[in-house]
Amino acid sequence: MKIAFIVYNQLTLLDFIGFYDPVTRLKSMGFIENMNWDICALSNEVVDDRGIRILASKVKKSLASYDLIFIPGGFGSRILQKDKEFINWIRSAESVKLKVSVCTGSLILGAAGFLADKHATTHPAAIKELKKYCLKCSKDRIVDQGNIITGSGVTASIDLGLHIVERLAGTSVRENISKQMDYPYKYYPK
Q1: What are phi and psi of 30, to 5 degrees?
Q2: How far apart are the first and last CA of the chain?
Q3: Which residue ranges make up each domain of the chain?
């Protein structure tokens, strides 16, 4: 399993970390040994919406070799959905089996054309903006359309990460990781 965590300037760090933490525990807790990931960007360094710097491990590399890409949301997504270079880079993930986003990261998936015949969700404040990209917008916390999975607002990133954990490794693994994280909530998507 090879994962690309997409980062960009003005992302919301909780969107990123809320997903990253449970998913990477699949390896650190020994559930999926053959898992690796890269922090992917179009520049060596990005800055979140409050000033935290993130270093990319892969810069301007095709996303085609990954099994899963994850795109967090943030104010930068609204600009990037119109950025041709960025969207063309995201389109290099066309063959990737799982495309996942949380919050306004779905606007980027939509701008890349990945939501055209799908149901999707995003932050409640961006639902109108998402409508132009997908078949149906939902206010559900997680929308799983098989190869495209979207999560709603910022804190949905933790639930989304645990949802992916369950898809990749099963219910008991999700429960173990939730317990290790001391995450007391049980969210089950429709």
Answers
A1: 85, 15
A2: 26
A3: 2-181
Per-residue pLDDT of 146-189, as tens digits, reads 999 999 998 999 999 999 999 999 999 999 999 999 998 876 55
Give the DSSP H or E segment for 101.
strand 98-102
Amino acid letter for position 85: E
pTM: predicted TM-score of the whole model, two decimal places: 0.95
Alpha carbon distance 119, 137 (integer Å):
6
CB 44 within 8 A of CB 183: no
Mean per-residue pLDDT of the chain: 95
CATH code assigned to 2-181: 3.40.50.880
- Mean pLDDT across the stretch 29-57? 97
Q: Which helix (H) or strand (E) holds 159?
A: helix 156-169
